[in-house]
Structure formats: C-alpha cells, structure tokens
Amino acid sequence: MKLVVALFFILIVSSTTEAAFTFNENCKLAYSDVMCLRLNLANTRMQTEKKLNPENQVPYIIENYIDFLKVLIGEDEKDFIRLQNNKDTRLQKLAAEGQNSPWFLYSQSLIYLQSGFARIKFGEYVNAGLDISKAYRLLTENQKKYPGFVMNKAGLGILHSLIGTVPAKYRWATRSLSFEGTIPEGNAEIKEAYLQVASDAKLHFLLPETTFLLTFVTLNTSPDASAAIDLVNKINTTSFKPLLNDSPILIYAFANVYTRAGENEKAIDLLTYCPRSADRYPFHYLNYMLGIAKLNRLDPDACYPLLDFLGSFKGKNYIRSAYMHLAWHYLIQNKPQQYNMYVERIKLRGNNQVDNDKEALLFAQKAIKPDLSLLKARLLFDGGYYARAKQELLAYKTSNKKNDLEYTYRLGRIYHNWGKTDEAINSYKETIRNGETSPYYYAANASLQLGTIYEKQNEFVKARQYYTKVLAMDFEEYKFSISNKAQAGLSRIKDK
Predict the structure, then answer these.
(1) Whole-structure pTM value
(2) Per residue in 179-211, is it b (16+ CB within 10 Å) or e — as a string?
(3) Domain annotation covers residue 184
(4) Does residue 256 lie within any of the structural domains?
C-alpha cells in the first residue's frame, strides 16, 4: 500500500500552459478534488472541460488518475478492468498532439506507470514489469529532452530509489528491463524537485505532493524518520495545512510518518478527524490504521474502527491483519471467547500478498496464544510509549525459546527508540546470538537495526556486516520488508 500510494503521487498537474496540455483553473480544481477524493466531482469537471476545450488533453490524465485511485484504494476488480480497458484509448489521445510539450511523453509514462502498479495490486507481475519498463524509458527520454522539467525528477527519483532497494539476487530482473538507479541518486532527484517547487511561487501548490515523495523515500530508504518528521512539521506550519485537513490521501501519508516516528497521539488525532463525507470516495484503510493506533495505546474502544474496516472494505489486503488485531484486543480485554472467534476468522477471509497478512495467517495456523506482557509491550512500543512498554516487560517470565527471543528483541527495540543505544546493541546482539537460525523474524530485524545504528555512527564495516547478515537469514514473518530495508542499507553505504 505504501509503495503504490507513493508512486501514484508522481501524477501532478502544473500551472503551466503547453499547447495541447492546458492546466486551466477547471483542471486545477479537478486535481484538487482528486486529492480530496471527491472523485465524482472531479470527473464531472473533466466532462465539462472536454466540451468546452475539446483539444485539451489534461482530462485524460485526470480521468486515469481517478480510475487508478479507485483501484488502489478500493481494490475492486471491476475498477481494475476499467482502468486496463481505458489504457490504450487514453494513450492514443495523449499521443495525438503536443509533441513539443514536456507533458507529451510524461503523460504517457504516467498511464503506463499507473497500469503497472495496479497490475501489482492484482498479482499480474510480468505485465506490471513491462508497463513500468515502458514508463521508465519514456521518463528517461523526456529527461534528455527537457532536463529542467520538475516532474521528470520526481518520477525518475522514485523509480531510481526503488530500484536501489532491489535485492542482489533479483538484480537480473532490473537489468533485463534496463532499469538503473541507486537510492542516493533517487533521493537527490526528489529533493531537487522539492526545492524547485518550494522556490517557485507558480509551483507552490505542488509542495504537498513533492513533500510527500520526499517523505516516502526518507521513510522507506533511510535509517530513521527524523527527516520525514521535519518535513511534516514544516508543512503543518504553512498555508498548506487546510489542504492536509481536507485530503484523506495526505492524512494517510502524514499518519504513516507519525506512526513510524512513535508519535501515536498525532496519528490518532489526524485519523479521527479525517473527513469522511458522502461526496468522497471511501478510504476504508484509514479505519484500519486508526484501530491499530488506538490498540497501540491499549484503548478499550480500539475494536470499533477495525470492525468498521472489516464491515465496509471489499478488497482483500489487511483483512487477516485486522482480524489478528481484533483477537489481540479481546485477549487484552480478557474476553477469551471473542479472542478465539477472531483467530479462527483469520483463516477464512483475506489475502497473503502483504507481510501483515502473512504474519496474521501464521499466527492463526500456529494457534499459540501470545504472552500478554510481550503483546502489550509490542503494541505500546509501536505507539511510542516506551516507558509503559518497558514496564510491561517487567512482568515477563521466561517460558519458551520464541518468547525469550521476543523478550530480548522487544527490549532492544524499546532501548533503541528511547535513545539508550548501548543497551539496545546488547539486546540486539543477544537476540541474534540466540535466534539467528530460528524461523522467527526477531533476529533478522535485530540485525537490521544494528546495521542502522552502526551506519548512523559511520561504522560502515559493521553496518555492512549486519545488513548482509539479514539477507543470509531464513525466516518467515516480514521477510520482504526487512530484507528490502537491509538491501536499501547496503545500497546507501555501497561506496563508504
């Protein structure tokens, strides 16, 4: 979800007028409506635009954006089929005129890129790779023709950053598609795009989107979230704050930043007051996020947003994870009957595409009730309540290898985020020593965290050692995301 949400933001309209690509007031309003998920209103504006200015090709860009967002957020197969069916027609429209505009090739790349990431959502990985390859080549060609075009930098920056996270054993795939790029290269391109927008008054309305992109690469390709938090705090003090409060998409992005940074109260506040009016396309995933954020605070009413998500969302991702968190909620509330019921439901509905759902299914299949102290410590840690999490661990009594591993791992995570680095290092090393050959993710993530600690301390030999160790471990839960972050770490320190 985070990956695809970030990638769709590279469709951004400009205030510039370029022959067949006229971004007039009506198109800007439609784009603003899209950002706020007023998709029907945006579509109505574009139908009007086609009648008033039939030569304008911008409506085809925004219409594709609308269809893509429905696929991304709603995960409805009918919307996916509609997006694919309209692809060739829109590409023909966009290729008909405007060859001298930087938007000519760029707009076509967006159609391919959105198609590619929609295909990933529905498991069509080969066709997704072909679409993304076409988008990449179009962007590269457009960059040669128009090196000053800001959105080339944003689009290529995201792709270059993501290419840099591909594990070494899969690099053959990127080479076969002629993909090249590194994390530092991509980050520099996105930062350049952000600064260009920030320094040009005519482009200021693009600042939230370029900030989002910069935040995304910071969260997903760097060791900590401090830079992303700085950006979020900066935009919260500007005139763009009203747009944030009106846009569920930006609320999603900022809530993710707050969650990753352990600022759970801010995430809950954003998600609680997110606009959910009837004229907006429903973003049910935000209820999933809110339920988990409230559970991280051990709120007794954390079940309600999760139940709302499960009752309303028609897609397949995060369903199993929602059931698992409901089960945990009722275990904490000492309601064993409800706990058992939701553990069983994990097996009956949902998908196994994302790490969260894979973890939930393994949890249900193993049918091992979590240790209550460890569970509370985990949730409180995720919310940034480090003192409370440490207090919960005091009640833990040694029981079995898995729980003992989790205990030292949780202790390390708490110390790490609490700023007690030496204690964190000791706990992480103990976790690796005792769990390196186990199927659990604790040792792998402990090794990843040690890599980030040593990287920040400029001890790159040690950092490389622990990032490499992650990739050598065989574990089940969160394997994709942990391995991806380890590969990103190796890419960052490649020449250091």
Answers:
(1) 0.87
(2) bebbbbbbbebbbebbebbeeeeebebbbbbbb
(3) yes
(4) no
